[in-house]
Amino acid sequence: MIELEARSYGENSTEEEIEAIRARVYMYSDNIVYWKEVPVMSVWQVQQYQSKMKSLTNNLKHYALLIDLTESKPPNAEIRASLRDVYGPFAEEGLDEAAVFTGKNFLINVAAKFVLGGVGLKKFTVHSKQEDALKALSDYA
After folding, report:
1. CB 40: neighbour CB atoms within 10 A?
2. What is the mean pLDDT of the chain?
């Protein structure tokens, strides 16, 4: 699989790039979806993640989301709106909780709280380390 560059991806992406993008969303455990954000987000890429997450969670009644933002730059307003549009329906269909880890990036922490605060999740937490985010999701492990 190819390594993604720190740039925005869109409709002109190659099949290999699309595969690499979609591979960043996967089942971490039976009830935890892992969402590893790309360095530079795009609405198209968020839609790719949405499609992959939908296929992974189609048969799950309750699950959690582990979001890795360690490589990401803060999203612009359009991307934040797109993320809220994606997470909202999942929150209505079984996504109960999310834990984000950012690697101590203050701007990403603020953006994560802003996005997740408006989607109707029962609970979300923001952490600097993956192990702390996983502890927050211990009911789903």
Report:
1. 17
2. 92
What is the arrangement of strands in the sheet containing 32-36, beginning at the earlier edge strand? 25-29, 32-36, 63-68, 95-101, 123-127
Domains of the chain plus CATH, in order, are: 15-140 (3.30.750.24)
On whether the CB atoms of residues 24 and 49 are closer than 8 A, the answer is yes
Name every residue whose Cβ is closer than 8 Å to that of residue 26 and which is 6 or more positions away in sequence. 33, 34, 52, 56
What's the pTM value of the predicted model, to 2 decimals? Answer: 0.93
DSSP-derived 3-state class of residue 9: coil
Grade residue 99 by pLDDT with cuts at 50, 70 and 90.
very high
> What is the rounded CA–CA span in Å between residue 25 and residue 116?
18
